[in-house]
Amino acid sequence: RRLVGFEDECRKILEDGLEMRCEFTNCAGDLSTVSWVSNQTYLAGTTVHMDSHNQQYNKPGNLVLGSVARGSATLKAYPDHRIPRPLVERGENSTEAMRESQSPWLYTSVVSSDYDRIHNRIYSSGFDKKVKVWKVDSAGASMRCIGTWEHEGPVNFVQASLFDNQDEALVATAADVPTNAVRVYHVSKDDRHVAQSRFKPFSCSRIVNSDGTPMVIDKWTYFPSTMRWGIEQSVKHLLLVGYSPRSLTGDDNDIPTDRSNTGELCLWDAVSGKGVTITSARTQNVFEVLWHPTQPVFIAATSPAGYALNFDRVKTQVRIFKQVVDNGHSTGLAFTEMNALDCYAVDINELTIMPNSPHFCFVTAGCTDGKTYVWDTALGDKPVQVLAHGQPVAGVTAGDDTDDTGVKFTAWGTSMDRFYTGSSDGIVKVWNVRSLGKKAKGRVILEAPAQISFGAFSPDKSKLVIGDASGRVFVLSTDHDDGSPPSFVKLPGGVKKRAPTTITPHADPPPPRGVALTDGRALGRRYVANGQLRYSGDPTVGMVKDMKYAETGLYCREAYLGGNTLMPVQAHFEAYLQ
């Protein structure tokens, strides 16, 4: 038995009213990042189709600004993360007809964002090799770009420090480049000078050989895999970065077998520009890192290491590091490993920490196997709960490293009695992990049509934004009046279903310099002149294929058997067309 706090019980009752209030559709791809600006406004980014073989599916909606209030909800697209569409030399996207039918711009994946509440700026980064700095208006209805920082590779991470320097802000970025991948920007408090911010670059030590010569970088190298600023007051100026080996061609076979489980944990003092010592367990492959909210302690999800470890069962570990005094180092500080928590999943996506006493805490790891492992650090290195989701949604192969993403959303609610997970089964659940001695049971609060890809609570925990792999954004709230009044569509059998709202699109940006847009009417006349289209003679039918239509390459290949346009259309597509 334990004492029950009245305020805690009231908070739990209120939180249990968290339900979906609105749904948006037609984002560019999987939701990959969400950052709340206030309790009503958030910014979100998505992945997109960028490869040469699927650029025809590239579309706007990769960066959106959302607003949720009583009686209204909006999700507005912004076009700023884009590049001129590259010329494709092979495949269906190489034809003149395909090029003319597509936008001259290629929208790029937006994979990271962060809000600086001290200086009221929000940052976004992506595969256009840029970081954008934004100012959101006081109403949360729109935003304007006040600065752009160019990088030499895709920018996977951007994060603002909570360190309150009187003269400038500290913002870190990490890009996919072999050297100097990490930058710490010293950003003026004056918005007019943000674009000219100076930065200091950092590199991990493993890009050089033991004799000090540069490592040969031809097929693979170490890239930043995770990055976090310290949270507790004494470590807010410390930047923690994890590195993992990665192929430069996308083929993991390029990585030598003896390097596949290696990596590096790096810790830098952004004020002095010097490294901070990590005394042990710093050379494993690093999946994720996270700082303790109230102590100079951090955790790191890494590949396993240890003399007495059962490697057949233990596939990864979550290591806990604490700060110690190091008089032999220039900073006078160091961090050392104090514990390692054993995990049975091959890869870890998400980490959380929830203090449960002055000296101990709950640690969770959301993993690619569709399970979230929960440890109580007071009870040893084995999980006290394993929170399992079901099989992935239809069309996704269970356990496939590429398709099955597993658990991609983990978060604590207002208390230790409410913990949330979202996985590749398209389900978001809430759990009470304090049911020690018995298996925790999850309650479903959202069912999405695709894999859950990201989620984030508002600062006051009253709202939750969830994104899935189909370009949908779901807004859950404890307030019944939040969001626009729902509209419903009637399905066969009299069943009514809530209709999603399409995001508000942005205007088409002007074409890149030197690129002229082709008028649609001129393009249509060209198709007719080339014998690719002809008028059917029926105004209700309009234009149809002509003898040379195949030259256009404009086919929905998914509709054909085996993706071969010479084969018949698949039955379910044929039925849909009828």
Strand content: 35-45%
Sheet with most strands: 5 strands, mixed
Structural class: mainly beta
Strand order within the widest beta sheet: 33-34-35-1-38
Span between N and C termini?
64 Å
Shape: globular
Helix content: under 10%
Query: Average pLDDT across residues?
Result: 90
List how many beta strands DSSP finds: 40
How many whole angstroms does the radius of gyration measure? 26 Å
Organism: Cryphonectria parasitica (strain ATCC 38755 / EP155)
Family: Belongs to the WD repeat LST8 family.
Pfam families: WD40 (PF00400)
Protein name: WD40 repeat-like protein
Key features?
five-stranded mixed beta sheet, single chain, MLST8, WD40 repeat-like protein, mainly beta, 578 residues, globular
Write the layout of secondary structure elements.
Elements lengths: L5 H10 L3 E7 L5 E6 L4 E6 L16 E7 L2 E6 L4 E3 L11 H6 L3 E3 L2 E7 L4 E6 L3 E7 L6 E8 L4 E6 L7 E8 L6 E7 L9 E5 L17 E10 L8 E10 L16 E6 L4 E2 L1 E2 L7 E6 L5 E6 L13 E10 L7 E11 L4 E8 L5 E7 L3 E6 L8 E4 L20 E4 L6 E4 L4 E5 L11 E5 L4 E6 L5 E6 L4 E5 L10 E3 L5 E3 L2 E2 L17 H10 L3 E3 L7 E3 L25 H7 L1
Parallel strand pairs: 1-38, 20-24
Antiparallel strand pairs: 1-35, 2-3, 3-4, 4-5, 6-7, 8-9, 9-10, 10-11, 12-13, 13-14, 14-15, 16-17, 17-18, 18-19, 21-22, 22-23, 23-24, 25-26, 26-27, 27-28, 29-30, 30-31, 31-32, 33-34, 34-35, 36-37, 39-40
